[in-house]
Amino acid sequence: MNSLKAAYRFLGRLEGFAIATVLLVLYLVLIMVAPAVFTRPMIYFSFLETVPPTLIAALGLTLVITAGEIDLSFPAVVSLSGFALAWGWKTFDPAYCAVIGVVLALAAGALVGYINGLMVARIGVPSIMATLAANFFWYGISILLAGGLQQTLRGSDENFVHELLVGRWFLGIPLQAVWSLVLAVFLWFILNRHKFGESVMFIGDNANVARVMGVNVEATRIRLFTLHGMIAAFSGIILTLNIGVFYPNQGNYLLPAMASVFVGGTSIAGGAGSIFGTFFGSYVIGSLEAGVVATTISGYWVQVVEGGVMAAVVVLNAATGKGDFASLFSRFRHNRGVQEFRSSGVQKDESVG
Amino acid sequence: MFSPLAMSNPLQDSPDQYALRMVNIDKYFGLIRALTSINLDVGRNEIVGLIGDNGAGKSTIVKILTGVFPPTSGELYIAGRKVDFRRYNVQSAHRHGIETVYQDKSLGEKQVLWRNFFIGRQIVNRFGFIDVKKQKAIANDIMLNTIGFRGKGITVDSTVSQLSGGERQGIAIGRAMYFEADLIILDEPTVALSLKEVAKVINFVHKIKEAGKASIYISHSLPDVYEVCDRFVVLDRGEIGASISKKEITLKELDDFLLEYAHGRKDKAKQ
Fold first, then answer.
1. ipTM for the complex?
2. CA-based nearest distance B65→chain A, Å
3. DSSP letter, residue B194
4. Do A195 and B107 touch (CB under 8 A)?
5. Which residue among A72, A307, B184, B248 has the highest number of C-beta atoms inside a 10 angstrom radius?
6. How far apart are CA B230 and CA B210, in angstroms?
7. Rounded to an integer, what distance in angstroms lies between the CA atom of residue A269 and that of residue A251?
8. What is the pLDDT of residues B86-132, one digit of tens each?
C-alpha cells in the first residue's frame, strides 16, 4: 500500500502526467466508440502533422503566461512570418530562397515580439491590451503586404528545408512532430534549469520581489516577448511549409493554443508553468475535434464535447493540485473563495519532467 | 567592479569600529523636513533597535541606507568608507553588505526554497544554466546550520507558501546572512505574526548576533526590541531623541521612559 502511494506521488510529480493520462483515456474512449478510425495508425499520423503548429505556439505561450503576462498577437505573427517566408521564397534564387525565407520569418516574429515587449515593459501597457492591438495591427500589415492574396511556395516539395522541417522520418513520422518535441524539451530546460526561466517564474509570482532580489524585470519581459515572437514565427514556418501555401488569414489558433496551456495545468495566475502539460494538452485539444467527428455523432455536438472535456480537465487540475478530491467537494459545499481554489491549483509547480 | 565608495580616509575613525555611521543626515521632501541632523552609529556586532511613532522617520532612514533615495545633505560611512550618494543605489547597497528583510517583499511564494535562496545570484555555468545540485546543497546547509531550521517536513524543495510567517522571515534572514551581509536591516519583521512566530523570528535575530554581524531592528513591539537589541535609538519627528544602551535600562524603565517622553512632547506642544 505504501509503495503504491509512493508510486502515485512520484507519478503525480512528473510534469504533465495528469494530462498525459487524460490523453490516453481519450484515445481509449475513441478506440471504443470509433474503432474503424482509431485502431488504424493513419489518424495518429494525421494528428502528428496537424497539431505541431498549435503546439509550438502554445509552448511559447506557456512561458509568457508563467511570467503573469499574455500574448494575443501570435496568430498575426503566424500570418506575418508566413508572408515573409513566401516573399523570400518567390524573390530569391531557388537554391537558397528557403533559407532566406526562414530567416526573414524568424526576424519578423522577433520584431513583433520585441515591440510587444517594449510596450509592456518600458511603457507599461497591460500585455492583454498591447498584444490585442498588435494582433489586429500585424494581421492588417500581413494582409496589406500580401494584397489579400494567397501565395504558393513553388517547388516546395523538393526543397531540402521542406524535407528537414516538415518531411517524413522513418515509418513516416512527420518531422514537425519531432521538432516540436525537441522544442518542448529545450524550453523545459530554459524554464526549469536556466537563469532566464527562473526570472520568468519569479516575475510571474511577484514582480516586486524579483526586482528587490536583483532580477532585471524589464529586460526579462522584453526578451520573453521577443522569444515568443520567434517561436510563433517558427509555428508559422511549419504551418506554411506543410501546406505549401501561405494564406493571409492563417494562424487562427489563438483559443486552441490557450486552451492547450490551461488544460496542461499552467496557472493563469503566473509563477509556475508546465511545458509538458502544454505538450500533451495540445494533443488533447487537437485530437478532440477529429475524434468527435469520427464517432459519427452529429457535427453539432463537436463544440459541446470539446468544451465539456476542457472544463473537466481544468477542474481536475484544480482538484488534484493538493492530491485530494475531498477538498474539492468541500469547496463546493462551503462555497469558499475563488482565491483559495486557485492557489490549490498552483501547487504542482515543482516537477521532475 | 565600479565602486560607489570613495577611498578610505586615514584621518577618520578606524574602519573596524562601525558597520555604519550616519553623520548629520538631513532629508527634505520639498519643504517638509523628514530628518534633522541624524547621527547614528551601528557597531560591527551590534543590534540597534530603532523605535519611533509612525512618521518619525524610520522608513526614511531605511530607504537612505538601502539606496532607494539619497539624503538632502550629510554623510554615510559603510565599514568606515564614505558613500558617494550619486553612485549609490539598491544594487550597490547589496554589494556593500547591506541587506534588507521586509515583511512581505522578500520571497517568491510559489517558488521552492532553493530557488528563493539564490534568485538574483544563481550559481550558473557559462550558458546560464543553474547548478541545481550545488544550490540545493548550499540551501540545505543554510537551513540547517546558519539558521537552525529543523524538522516538520520542510526541505529545500518545499514552496514558500507551505511556510509560516516566522519561518519565511527565517529564510530571508538566513539568505542575507549567507550572502555575507555585514548589516541586516529588519523592517518590521514581526508585523502580523502570532506570538509563537514572533519567538521564531527573535531566535533568528539572535543568530545574526552570534554570527558577528550587525543589524538595525525596526519594530513597534517594545518587548521584542528589548529582547534582541543591544541599544535603543528613539526617533521622534525626524530627530534622534535618545540613545540608550540595554545595560542602562530595564524593559519597564524603557517603557516608562517612552511614555514620559511622549507626554513631555505633548506638554511642550501645549506651551
1. 0.81
2. 14
3. -
4. no
5. B184
6. 13
7. 26
8. 888 777 887 888 888 876 667 999 999 999 999 888 899 999 999 99
